[in-house]
Amino acid sequence: MATPAPPVVTIFEAYGSGAEEIGPRVAEELGVPFHAQAFSSEQLEDPSTGDGLLARVFAAMGGSYAALEGPAVAMAQRDDHELVLRNTEWVLDAARGGGVIVGRNGALILSSWPGALHVRLDAPVTRRVERAARVAGISPERAARRQRREDLMRADMSLRLYGWDPREPTRYDLVLNTGTLDPVACAAVIVHAVRAKAR
């Protein structure tokens, strides 16, 4: 009898929806690793805190809006291709061992992965900003600025590099409102759905 494949869950969250609380709970319950966003809110707010990969992503984002001509177009396309390959290989490798993967275009890359459950977390903006400020220990005003920037930026990354909009709800098996369900309840629903889908 074949050994069952380890569970795989992808999560895409609107800023402040609680993935940093819910994801680890799900991973612990399923006995698989938790993989946070590739880039934290702090890195997106201040790119100097990140590594060279974030700088390359920002360069690609800028290229999508700039009027590029001649060799610059080919260079931007090459960088985009390399970023997509690198991220896709990372996600596939993580999925082979099972895991809870936040962001990284996991729902698209693993859309046909057997048994993978794809989850979107969202909530009213005011609730998301309140939660993000509390969790990060920052002012609500700063969290509100992060929310406006980050929600747009994460969607733009996916649109630019992968040509899909991660905000589209039909891409997911579950869409959970973390404004009405607490992290424990959300984790329980996700774990139950993982096991149900595996059957």
UniProtKB/TrEMBL annotation:
GO terms for molecular function: kinase activity. The keyword Kinase applies. Keywords: Kinase, Transferase. It holds the Pfam family Cytidylate_kin2. Gene3D superfamilies: P-loop containing nucleotide triphosphate hydrolases. This is Cytidylate kinase. It comes from the Bacteria.
